[in-house]
Q: What sequence folds into this?
């Protein structure tokens, strides 16, 4: 078990930095919502293969008598239920951040919940979803005005912090392992698997000597550098100042400053024509209402005969439709303004708004599960260094929850990550 903070966090909580963790629901709201939340939680764990240990030694859950089952330890049940009743799944994550509950194997616990995500809440209550769940703040909707702020809140945290858990390629997206199901990759396998992922995308987009390449979403520059090694001329755009600075330095150190340009620019402001357009796990930050604009922009700037290669995290289409207006823990603390598409949505949007069609698709969700495992293990082993960079115990606990929460989605199959190659119909 990785312990980032003591369960007795409340006594040392910096409420000025984490105000919603120090604020408990009002008495009336707590009484009404907490009663519903307690009944719902008890009902859910009674149907799941999980052990829930209470402070008095009581163990509940369908797997209460299975010692090897995933364990959820409730240090402060009343606080946990109050947060769950007041804010649903946001409260579930916040209660972990605040130390109300813990687990010796967080990923396994979250995977059990993720496997039943679609029916954790009874259907009659799901019909009341719109009356209960929080909506996205207007300040986080991905207009041209808000997008830079949304991106900055995540990617401008600190290059040094990201360096603590990413491999030397500084790739912050799923790697592609040879066999992610039957083989447990090691840390040394991660960088080659990131190269494999990038090379497959570049191959799909037909990037070679003299190709004019547009990359939407720079990351820290690895894809642009590998494209330049093939002889391509690359323009990469990002809204993260921190990423731009480090990507430019890495490009310069690799000797490709004459063939790679990294611009601080919204993708909607791009000009020019490109033989290949690539974008790695950037569509997730676009927002549901702006997917047509995203693909229309790509279509507009793709030269005749060109190809597009994107890597995208996807979710089931029915869940996408059911949750598209839901404000989640991930939105609040990790990726403001983000939303995951479905495979069907990508196909529908491109058919309705562009001349582009999906020509090839690769599913690689279990590779992401392994990538996230390696990131989390690395982050845990570098927790002291992250702390010295100024990230407090609550942040470190939050980041651990985020990485394991994400991994659970892929391990359970609720989420997938796919590489899509798109081209115009007349180019097939």
A:
């Amino acid at each position: 078990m990785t312990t980032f903070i003591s369960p007795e966090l409340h006594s040392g909580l910096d409420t000025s930095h984490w105000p919603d963790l120090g604020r408990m629901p009002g008495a009336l709201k707590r009484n009404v919502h907490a009663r519903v939340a307690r009944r719902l939680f008890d009902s859910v764990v009674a149907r799941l293969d999980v052990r829930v240990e209470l402070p008095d030694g009581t163990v509940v859950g369908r797997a209460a008598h299975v010692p090897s089952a995933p364990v959820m330890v409730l240090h402060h049940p009343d606080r946990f239920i109050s947060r769950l009743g007041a804010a649903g799944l946001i409260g579930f994550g916040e209660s972990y951040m605040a130390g109300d509950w813990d687990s010796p194997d967080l990923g396994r616990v979250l995977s059990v919940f993720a496997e039943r995500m679609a029916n954790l809440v009874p259907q009659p209550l799901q019909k009341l979803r719109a009356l209960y769940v929080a909506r996205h703040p207007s300040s986080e909707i991905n207009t041209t005005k808000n997008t830079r702020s949304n991106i900055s809140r995540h990617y401008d945290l600190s290059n040094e912090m990201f360096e603590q858990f990413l491999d030397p390629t500084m790739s912050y997206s799923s790697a592609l392992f040879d066999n992610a199901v039957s083989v447990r990759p090691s840390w040394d396998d991660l960088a080659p698997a990131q190269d494999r992922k990038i090379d497959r995308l570049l191959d799909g987009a037909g990037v070679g000597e003299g190709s004019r390449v547009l990359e939407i979403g720079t990351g820290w520059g690895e894809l642009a550098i590998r494209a330049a090694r093939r002889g391509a001329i690359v323009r990469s755009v990002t809204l993260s100042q921190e990423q731009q600075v480090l990507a430019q330095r890495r490009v310069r150190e690799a000797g490709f400053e004459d063939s790679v340009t990294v611009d601080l620019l919204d993708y909607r402001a791009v000009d020019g024509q490109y033989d290949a357009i690539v974008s790695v796990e950037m569509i997730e930050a676009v927002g549901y209402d702006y997917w047509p604009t995203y693909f229309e922009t790509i279509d507009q700037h793709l030269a005749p005969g060109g190809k597009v290669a994107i890597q995208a995290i996807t979710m089931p289409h029915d869940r996408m439709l059911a949750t598209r207006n839901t404000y989640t823990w991930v939105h609040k603390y990790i990726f403001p303004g983000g939303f995951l598409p479905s495979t069907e949505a990508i196909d529908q949007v491109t058919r309705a708004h562009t001349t582009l069609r999906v020509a090839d698709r690769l599913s690689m969700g279990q590779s992401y599960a392994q990538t996230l495992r390696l990131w989390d293990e690395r982050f845990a082993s570098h927790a002291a260094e992250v702390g010295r960079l100024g990230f407090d115990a609550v942040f470190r606990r939050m980041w651990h929850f985020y990485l394991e929460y994400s991994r659970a989605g892929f391990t359970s199959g609720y989420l997938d990550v796919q590489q899509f190659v798109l081209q115009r119909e007349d180019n097939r």
About this structure: The radius of gyration is 22 Å.
